[in-house]
Design the sequence.
DNA sequence: ACGTACACGTGAGAC
DNA sequence: TGTCTCACGTGTACG
């Protein structure tokens, strides 16, 4: 039988011969891909309620989550400022009550709480 | 020009003929890749101080940024709780001062400010 | 000249 | 079934 040609070597599993340089290129490409995948996994681990293990979903949900967190930070900062103001107002009020010297002649110290 | 054989078609720019099915597969693969790239861009737009426009950097810095934001949220929540407690204490104190019924019979209302 | 980063073609598997 | 998703090989470009 005359089947001992090159085709015998490069059959079922892409085992064809390559110059060592090209093989390193192949390995470089593969490990780059694997590295990216690890980072995808690392990112997806930080995202709550990740439905689908798809790359597109990881990126999409990462965007949503970052936006949510930034909103949350903003809301908390505002709330925090309110609380600070409230404390200051209360302290001032206490001071007024303690020293008993406030509010009789001025109209800007009309402090009401809701 | 007598060179109108198939070689004319598949010359310099991979313009070889393909069955329509395979061509759709090619287009599917390409648009999937483009879609991912758009999401990469969308994510990188949310990340401050992104040095390099590399996919690996986007994923890495996204992880860092999410962690930073989560820490920030936690810190703000704690601070907010402190402020809330402070306000409550001040309100209670004010109430005591106003109603003037505190401290004489109970030892747990010993509120001091520093 | 070598390594890194990437887009695309493509085969395979999932749904 | 046809579509979607992905890993990998590979050509290309940049440093």
Sequence:
């Amino acid at each position: 039988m005359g089947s001992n040609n090159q085709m015998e070597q490069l059959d079922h599993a892409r085992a064809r011969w390559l110059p060592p340089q090209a093989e390193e290129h192949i390995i470089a490409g593969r490990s780059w891909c694997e590295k990216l995948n690890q980072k995808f996994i690392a990112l997806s681990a930080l995202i709550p309620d990740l439905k689908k293990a798809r790359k597109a979903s990881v990126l999409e949900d990462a965007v949503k989550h970052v936006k949510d967190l930034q909103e949350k930070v903003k809301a908390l900062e505002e709330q925090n400022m309110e609380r600070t103001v409230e404390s200051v107002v209360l302290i001032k009020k206490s001071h007024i009550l303690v020293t008993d010297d406030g509010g009789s002649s001025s109209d800007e110290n009309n402090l009401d709480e809701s």
Remarks:
- Residues 51-114 of chain A form one domain.
